Amino acid sequence: MSFIERQLQTSITAITNWCDKNGFVLSAQKTNCVHFCKLRGMHPHPEIFLNGTSISMVSEAKFLGIILDEKLSFRPHILNLKRKCNKTLNLLKILSNITWGADFSSLLKIYKALVLSKLDYGCTIYGYARKSLLQTLDTIHHQGLRLSSGAFRTSPVQSLYIINKEPALELRRHKIVLKYLFKIKSNSEHPMHNKILQPAFGTFYANKKSYIPSFGHRMRSVIQTLNTQNVEIEPKEDGLPPWRGFNIRTIDEFYKLPKSLTSDNVYRQLFYYHRQQHKDFNSAFTDGSKTANHVGSAVVFNNFTVTEKLHEYCTVFTAEVYAILLALNVIGTSQDKKWIIYTDSKSYVEALLN
């Protein structure tokens, strides 16, 4: 403990000196210290001083909205979160009145904005507390879904998920932490990139079951359960700033011809005419498809075809977009500068233009 005190005191002294030089003042009365420790018996706490005043030792402290207790059980945070959500659910109880209350879609939006957002915040940190603690939040989620949909109290939980099109909190937490993991994985300059992809102290956490593993070790079990350990992530690239927007030219020869009222021969002749008008342009035909267990993208050029298999969790939209990316990769290495990319994904074109 004496070694810890010396190291902490040296760091605090260095921070205090820097603050004095740059015009900042640290208040010892507003500064607290939490001793994170798993020991259960009597044990000494470090005594740390700030400008000659001893820093008070507390059992828990709030940092960026997360209550950190000395045992890192997150019990105070989860209980406080439950109290706050229960107060907000009272508003839903009033608004869900049968005679003059809000409709289903409005209630669900209110629940997501006022309650579910609180449950999502910080779940990457507190989401690995004891299951018995996390189950207290499940009751909040289920009550909110019941109030939003108007379901009976005896309605099964699974039916609530289906009616509201909302997953269980556990699956929702998995989704959020996976998004955070892939965000870090795509950015090699992130300070936690190597520590999460190659976590240390694996043997220690394997032998000490009472200790909560680090984020990298926790995510390994999640990605193995969801079969996403072999998903390749495109590296993050900084896009163009808003003031340097790019112009994209799109051609839609068929927008005035409804499919239900137009013969295939008309489409074919119109396409032949289009190709005649742009005969000096090279063509690249892209497409993406999805079956029960397979997802793939393909690009057809004049002399060759590029195909690639995607993860089974990818959507059709992802397959269509990835096919266009494959075409752009080939076009970027080609000496020809005049190209037209053909796609049947209207949703992608609209997303690109917006």
Automatic annotation (TrEMBL):
InterPro entries: RNaseH-like_sf, RNaseH_sf. One of its GO terms (molecular function) is nucleic acid binding. This is Uncharacterized protein.
